[in-house]
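@channel sequence for tomorrow's demo:
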Amino acid sequence: MTEADTAYAQDLEPASREYLQRRWYWYDWANSAYATTIAAVLIAPYLTAVAKEAACPGIADGETCRTNLDVLGIGIAPGSLAPFTITVSTLLSALVLIFVGGIADRSERPTRLLGAFAWTGAASACLVYFIAGTSWQLGVVLIIVSNLCFGASMVVYDALLVRIAPPDDRDRVSSRGWAFGYFGGGVLLALNLFVLSAHDALGMSEGTAVRISLLSAGLWWAGFTIIPVRGLRSLTGTVATPAARSAGVVRGSLVQLRSTFGELRRYPQTLQFLVAYLFFNDGIQTVISSASLYGKEELGFSANQLVITILLVQFVAFGGALLFGRLARTYGATRLILWGLGLWVLVVVAAFFLPAGRFGPWLALGVGIGIVLGGTQALSRSLYSQLIPRGRESEFFSLYQAMERGTSWFGTLLFGLVYQLAHSYRLSIIALIVFFVLGGTLLARCDVRAGIRAAGNTPSRVV
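structure tokens (generated this afternoon):
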């Protein structure tokens, strides 16, 4: 099969596109186990509990530990360790992922890269099982490695969207991928909820049940990645330019990256979208990664209640992603994203005023998050795919992925700093409004249709 036969969706027969799209969805299903069970629900509260035990031995749940951990000579509050760890992993991602994009565009077999990153990340996620007692240092290292690999795999995965879906079909395909992922993550989370709820009957402690749930997410990620890696293996052939191809993998990637940053100035609307996305996605990702911490430490909910909440969000987000994908056909992705950001502001304000222990209203907030979560993320991905020049998808998606789910750093840094100074998660959560407002303002001023044409692409019917 030649490069021209496989490089882009319009080069494929409809039946081949449909086959590849079905296999492509499975990686959303696979990685959502990590994004949900580990990143969004269990790891932040669990790492915080381990850190608090290390700094304040014997401390009761719900009590504030005011003894700092010594992290490379810096005093860090145990309650800030998890958000700061995510911040560090994101800063590293910003440096590493841009090189991943350059290499991926030059790879003859991009799905091999997808598998390598996914299985390395899954192995790190499985090793989280061994975080116990006061071993918060191991937890920090494993979270950083797994987040880096998660982001690297998503650079390759997102860039493949251009090869399997033409412009008018990308909102639908991207939304279905997100929906499939939320459903898969929800299925595993439901199984983990059973383990957490029945840990006494199963003869294990709550801590052991949490660790088994963390292990299951790594195994799920590794196992289901086999389907897209095998199913998309026909997508061979590099899309790098001939000049860059002749330079070799490493040097050629550096040349391409230098060219990417230089060329980005030629696409001001693409750059403005990226900056807008940086802000509003940081807000979204920080809410996702910090919601369980906020629910446990500030509102006093149990691990079971937090899993129920995220489980609800997962299945509502399944429908929300499909709904936004359908509405985008009529109203356009840009307008739908802006509507979603307005709803995000309302959710954050409601969370700030929510009294402790009120589980019913907390679940209502979960429904609100689920409706807008999948839709805003899926449409952002498909809209951005039209704003990048042909042949540079992975490079440009590496910039996008540096700000993607699980890799926000402005938000987590602000969240951790506010808690470090005020010891209040309520003040931390309300501070995130600034990201939605700034991101929405920049997106509203972005001429998306002009940006698509400037990148050399044909705009879809509505954008």
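heads up for whoever presents: The two ends are 34 Å apart (CA to CA).
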